[in-house]
Backbone:
């Protein structure tokens, strides 16, 4: 059975100050998406789709994609590798990109760009996040049993383990009942303080440390794409489509589908530790976390051996 991993790697990394997707952090210069791929392959995934900016495609091919083509999946088949570019050429013909806009249109558009390459159940992740070894096995098993229509899966994490002391982050704040996602809202300015307290600065309210959040670790059937296309077109037609920085977020589309009864989302919980890079100051901590994982035997000495 074909199950694909879609890696969203087209972000500008404006708060980080560069292309964090290809910043070498591992003991031998490994980038974070190499860990995601390694974990996904040992869980059973057999296809990887990279969503990149056009100017990054060659770097991703040489660094990750070309070596990956020489790998074998658990089922004995060669790992399938595909690429999708997230740029303005993919927007509908009715829409004119506002002059001065350089920012990509966000996570929903990123996955939508991969749609022509994805014809099987897929897991979608951020390129600059580390999700943990066990999380991939958990979502892979769910994807192999995912119905053709009407259901999706999400791996949820505790908010306290996903914020940064170096500035605000955006997080999908979730309400979960009976293992199902009931609501998800995008909190755009979540701040972690040294005493462990968390606050949504945009709405000026505290947040509980154990709040379940979406880290863009979703699982979908390919039937999700027509609804995504319609949602994206409505976004472009709205006032947000005129904004130079507005993004079209996956959680917002998921919420709409839940509200109209078209989607049931199973929330999977992972005991693994998440970490990622939002700010340049996060880099040293992430590198140290990876070093510890290698030292503990979670990974071989080098992922590039």
Residues:
């Amino acid at each position: 059975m074909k199950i694909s991993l879609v890696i969203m790697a087209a972000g500008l990394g404006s708060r980080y100050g560069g292309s964090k997707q290809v910043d070498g952090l591992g003991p031998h210069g490994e980038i974070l998406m190499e860990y995601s791929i390694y974990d996904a392959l040992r869980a059973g995934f057999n296809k990887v789709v990279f969503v990149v900016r056009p100017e990054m495609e060659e770097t991703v091919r040489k660094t990750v994609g070309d070596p990956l083509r020489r790998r074998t999946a658990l089922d004995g088949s060669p790992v399938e590798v595909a690429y999708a570019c997230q740029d303005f050429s993919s927007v509908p013909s009715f829409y004119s990109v506002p002059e001065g806009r350089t920012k990509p249109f966000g996570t929903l558009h990123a996955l939508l760009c991969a749609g022509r390459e994805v014809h099987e159940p897929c897991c979608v992740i951020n390129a600059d996040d580390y999700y943990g070894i066990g999380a991939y096995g958990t979502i892979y098993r769910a994807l192999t049993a995912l119905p053709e229509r009407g259901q999706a899966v999400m791996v949820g994490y505790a908010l306290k383990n996903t914020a940064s002391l170096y500035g605000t982050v955006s997080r999908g704040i979730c309400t979960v009942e009976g293992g199902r996602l009931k609501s998800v809202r995008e909190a755009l300015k979540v701040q972690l303080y040294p005493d462990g307290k968390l606050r949504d600065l945009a709405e000026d309210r505290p947040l509980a440390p154990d709040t379940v959040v979406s880290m863009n670790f979703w699982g979908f059937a390919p039937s999700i794409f027509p609804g995504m296309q319609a949602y994206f077109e409505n976004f472009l037609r709205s006032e947000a489509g005129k904004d130079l920085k507005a993004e079209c977020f996956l959680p917002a589309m998921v919420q709409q589908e839940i509200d109209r009864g078209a989607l049931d989302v199973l929330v999977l919980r992972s005991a693994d530790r998440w970490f990622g890079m939002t700010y340049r100051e996060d880099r040293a901590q992430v590198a140290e976390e990876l070093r510890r994982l290698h030292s503990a035997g979670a990974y071989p000495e080098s992922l590039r051996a």
User: Anything to note?
Assistant: The chain is about 25% helix and 25% strand.
